[in-house]
Automatic annotation (TrEMBL):
<dbReference type="InterPro" id="IPR004839">
    <property type="entry name" value="Aminotransferase_I/II_large"/>
</dbReference>
<comment type="subunit">
    <text>Homodimer.</text>
</comment>
<dbReference type="GO" id="GO:0030170">
    <property type="term" value="F:pyridoxal phosphate binding"/>
</dbReference>
<keyword id="KW-0808">Transferase</keyword>
<dbReference type="Pfam" id="PF00155">
    <property type="entry name" value="Aminotran_1_2"/>
</dbReference>
<feature type="domain" description="Aminotransferase class I/classII large">
    <location>
        <begin position="32"/>
        <end position="392"/>
    </location>
</feature>
<keyword id="KW-0032">Aminotransferase</keyword>
<dbReference type="InterPro" id="IPR015422">
    <property type="entry name" value="PyrdxlP-dep_Trfase_small"/>
</dbReference>
<dbReference type="InterPro" id="IPR015421">
    <property type="entry name" value="PyrdxlP-dep_Trfase_major"/>
</dbReference>
<comment type="similarity">
    <text>Belongs to the class-I pyridoxal-phosphate-dependent aminotransferase family.</text>
</comment>
<dbReference type="InterPro" id="IPR004838">
    <property type="entry name" value="NHTrfase_class1_PyrdxlP-BS"/>
</dbReference>
<dbReference type="GO" id="GO:0004069">
    <property type="term" value="F:L-aspartate:2-oxoglutarate aminotransferase activity"/>
</dbReference>
<protein>
    <recommendedName>
        <fullName>Aminotransferase</fullName>
        <ecNumber>2.6.1.-</ecNumber>
    </recommendedName>
</protein>
<keyword id="KW-0663">Pyridoxal phosphate</keyword>
<dbReference type="GO" id="GO:0006520">
    <property type="term" value="P:amino acid metabolic process"/>
</dbReference>
<dbReference type="InterPro" id="IPR050596">
    <property type="entry name" value="AspAT/PAT-like"/>
</dbReference>
<dbReference type="InterPro" id="IPR015424">
    <property type="entry name" value="PyrdxlP-dep_Trfase"/>
</dbReference>
Length: 400
């Protein structure tokens, strides 16, 4: 009998973390590797937020806090939901956690029983299915194609719902595609959900403020108020505020669900880092002007990457509405061979060969549940992106 839990055999390590680690190892060994795998902004955390954290340390705010968040931060989150999304919550309906992933994990652990199904549109963030499996549930993956710009259709959602469905996980703008659902597209999905009152909605709104051009962000309970009582609206400070390492996520929803999540957290991590909570408080209540500045930079980088990748024969690269990723298709490259003799049989062999022969690290599409694609994070310097895309162009041009 194995010493390790059988549950672990159902899950796998995060592929995005693995790519980032591999790129770091090769750099340390002297290779000129450009890593485009990490899903975090290259901007520094704004100074006002860092200053708030320093003040918290100086004032001795380094002790345990209430399990799921200090009162001031919970109130700031209520204010944020009202201001940005038109949603009314009380502090008793809010939970603060050690990152957005922790928020989702707590909710799944608090609600799933064996046999419960969770609908997950693909391409998906790599952790969704594995968190469902760890919590004892069954992920139901529904593929959204390039033809629908990686967005789930109402017909697909309707067909995936069974009497066992407990949650529908919804992410817009999306990791890994950057695809954002318009108000009308989201309304069509909520109309389906209204016909199935046993299905709850778990949103992942982490990229809410990273929305470009004419795209307007919306979240399900905002679009369909009747879903309010069965929606967990999840968000965090990691991406928009360049605070990935601070590890603060949060959510709001029905008080009984929040209480159940609090119970899970009380027996796992206890409270999120006290210093990070005061930093998050400053993020939500302080200056927001840098968001527009950052978005201008992200749009420029997005356009650069889409333009250069679209020049490659065999690659199709849609323009995303938000986040900081593109998700090109390599359908036209399957079956070709690299100068080193590697045959491109799928997106994983493509990504491996790209790293080994061109020193560019990307994440292969199978990790996100839809192939043949790869994900590029453009949250890095323009010149770095230009060089990386040039290497990808030369690598692809040499395929035969």
């Amino acid at each position: 009998m194995s010493f390790l839990s059988a549950t672990l055999s159902r899950v796998k390590p995060s592929p995005t973390m693995a790519v980032t680690q591999k790129a770091s190892e090769l750099k340390a060994a002297g290779r000129d590797v450009i890593g485009l795998g990490a899903g975090e902004p290259d901007f520094d955390t704004p100074q006002s937020i860092k200053d708030a954290a320093v003040r918290a340390i100086a004032e001795g705010k380094t002790k345990y806090t209430t399990v799921d968040g200090i009162p001031e931060l919970k109130q700031a989150i209520c204010d944020k939901f009202k201001r940005d999304n038109g949603l009314d919550y009380t502090p008793a309906q809010v939970t603060v956690n050690s990152g957005g992933k922790h928020t989702l994990y707590n909710a799944l652990m608090a609600t799933l029983n064996p046999g419960d199904e969770v609908i997950i549109p693909a391409p998906y963030w790599v952790s969704y299915p594995d968190m469902v499996l760890l919590a004892g549930g069954t992920p139901i993956v529904v593929e959204a194609s390039l033809e629908t710009r990686f967005k789930l259709t109402p017909e697909q959602l309707e067909a995936a719902i069974t009497e066992k469905t407990k949650w529908f996980i919804f992410n817009s703008p999306s990791n890994p595609t950057g695809a954002g659902y318009s108000h009308a597209e989201l309304k069509a999905l909520t109309e389906v959900l209204m016909r199935h009152p046993h299905v709850w909605v778990m949103t992942d709104d982490m990229y809410e403020h990273l929305a470009y051009d004419d795209f307007k962000f919306a979240t399900p309970a905002e679009v369909e108020p009747q879903l309010y009582e069965r929606t967990l609206t999840c968000n965090g400070v990691s991406k928009a505020y360049a605070m990935t390492g601070w590890r603060i996520g949060y959510a709001a929803g029905p008080a009984p669900l929040i209480a159940a999540m609090r119970k899970v957290q009380s027996q796992s991590t206890s409270n999120p880092c006290s210093i990070s909570q005061y930093a998050a408080l400053a993020a939500l209540t302080g200056p927001q002007d840098f968001l527009a500045t950052h978005n201008e930079i992200f749009v420029r980088r997005r356009n650069l990457v889409v333009s250069m990748l679209s020049e490659i024969d065999g690659i199709t690269c849609p323009v995303p509405e938000g986040a900081f990723y593109v998700y090109p298709s390599i359908a036209g490259l399957i079956g070709k061979t690299t100068p080193a003799g590697t045959r491109i049989t799928d997106d994983e062999t493509f990504a491996t060969a790209l790293l080994e022969e061109a020193n560019v690290a990307v994440v292969f599409g199978a990790a996100f549940g839809l192939s043949p694609n790869f994900r590029v994070s453009y949250a890095t310097a323009d010149e770095t992106l230009k060089e990386a895309c040039s290497r990808i162009q030369h690598f692809c041009a040499a395929l035969r």
